[in-house]
Amino acid sequence: MTFRVLSGLDCELFGRLESGAIGTPAAGDYLRLPFTSHGLSGRIGKETSDLLGQGRDPTDPDRGDETVDGDIAVPMDVRGTGFWLALLLGLPTTAASKAYGSVTFGADPRAGDTVTLDGTVFTFVSGAPATATEVQTGANLLASVTALAAAANASVVAEVAAATYTVGDGVRLDIQHDTSGASGAEYSLAASAATVSGATLTATYTHTYGSGCSASDIRRATMVIRSTPAALTWRQLGVWMTRAQLALASTGRASLTASLIAHREDEVVSAALGDVVTHAYQRFLQAQGSLLVDGQQVAEITASSMVYDNSLSGVRSLGYGGRIADIDVATAKLDGTITARFGSGTLKSRAESDTPVDLLYRWQPSPGAALSIAYPRVWLPKPQRSISGPAGVEASYAWMAAKRQAAGAVTTAAAMTAVLTNDVASYAP
């Protein structure tokens, strides 16, 4: 038998939310999950023998309990993130949103090139437009796409006027239908010298997740990590997410670190994954993100992080072989940090006034793809400042979030609400 070293390059990760009894693998079609590191694994320790009267040399150790836990780092991507949010916060409330599509140009359009928007043909011309459907080519690609968006937005043709047109990344015409629901997905697209996102607009959905769900709404999953070249497959059953951490910076790629515990891990010859669902991969980039304080962009902020601790602890019950059979839930903890240039700015004044602020983290690479995480009630401490040189001084605010609660009410608005917009119809198992 040829020995093959396990390589991270060859590993694939799959997951599906469970709905059956603990220890029963989730049945159905699994989702292929992008990841950047994987530490979820089972281990069984050894316990030193406590026998006496056997001499000074130790006797055989006893088998310890099985523990399955670890972290998985995953990219924040437009579609896969919904699975991890469901594992953390429970299933979302999903509603139809506005259909979205795009026309992407690889080069500056030339005279005679056409773009057809739901049956209306727009033609690029080199001179001044003579009709409402002619678009003058610009000095560069951005100018040409901007002119196309302006012409489409000004159109009085009912089918064209039923959508809104914007410029994406300087090379793309983004199209979002003005009406939510499936009817917008009937809007057709075509182009003679550009790439359309599809023959029609794509139906989109908003998935709304709220913190503080009841214990019965917390979901568990079956996870499978495999390496086909090394002929190795591990399956973790009854996986719960205990903690999630996310950082926001001015550059780089957005990633989430999920801390997990599980009922058990099996090494299997193969795992039934059904018809694996592989979503088109589109990552949220940090440059596409923003952090709003009370609805306003604050220039002094340079970085931020957020942590959601589910406060879950495993319960080892009799009859389960020493494994975790269920979870206990406690009060969730929502906190994070904001790093900012220290001065007479918004954060300093709000911290000193001891009044809560509203934080909104959001990423939106296009109208049909977005993620927002809202904390309506965040408390900022007065930070310690440190001056160590001639450069600008930074301060770190370790914030804490709480739910918005009316007088006499037990539950009101969630302490955190995440809204994901994409073309996935459902995350339910």
UniProtKB/TrEMBL annotation:
Alphabetical list of InterPro entries matching this protein: Phage_tube_2 (IPR044000)
Residue spans of biased composition, Basic and acidic residues class: 57-66
Annotated segments matching region Disordered: 44-70
Superkingdom of this protein's organism: Bacteria
Protein known as: Uncharacterized protein
Native organism taxonomy: Bacteria, Pseudomonadati, Pseudomonadota, Alphaproteobacteria, Rhodospirillales
